[in-house]
Specification:
- InterPro entries: Rieske_2Fe-2S, Rieske_2Fe-2S_sf.
- The protein is an all-beta fold.
- The chain has a single domain (6-105), classed as Rieske Iron-sulfur Protein (3-layer Sandwich), CATH 2.102.10.10.
- 0% of the residues lie in helices and 39% in strands.
- The chain is built from no helices and ten strands.
- It has a four-stranded antiparallel β-sheet with strand order 2-3-4-8, with no helix packed on it.
- The radius of gyration is 13 Å and the shape is globular.
């Protein structure tokens, strides 16, 4: 488990409806951060169905869902749970915080 927080971007660079990707400084895990109406959520940037980046897919801030472009699996960005086939396993959710105008995440597994 990493205790080190990784800088993603400034709050000005992650507007509502947008997502950004960073790599955890300790584990190297790709983490996608989603801005859903001002609330920030962080998930591992990897579909649980097949090894593919969720950030390449479509983020729908109104429903809070991200869709994998490979096979159409959808996940809730708030908790990482799989919402439809072909994904049945959730995606790892990570803590995100804002400090001094900076968005920070970490792999806390």
């Amino acid at each position: 488990m990493s205790e080190v927080w990784t800088f993603v971007c400034t709050t000005d660079e992650l507007l509502p409806g947008e997502m950004k990707v960073a790599f955890d400084e300790v584990t190297g895990t790709p983490i996608a951060v989603f801005n859903m109406d001002g609330d920030l959520y962080a998930l591992e940037d990897q579909c649980s169905h097949e090894d593919f980046e969720l950030s390449a897919g479509h983020f729908d801030p109104a429903s809070g869902q991200v869709e994998c472009v490979l096979h159409g699996a959808r996940f809730d960005v708030r908790d990482g749970r799989a919402l439809c086939a072909p994904a049945y396993e959730p995606v790892a959710k990570f803590p995100v915080k804002v400090e001094d105008g900076q968005v920070l995440v970490r792999d806390d597994r």
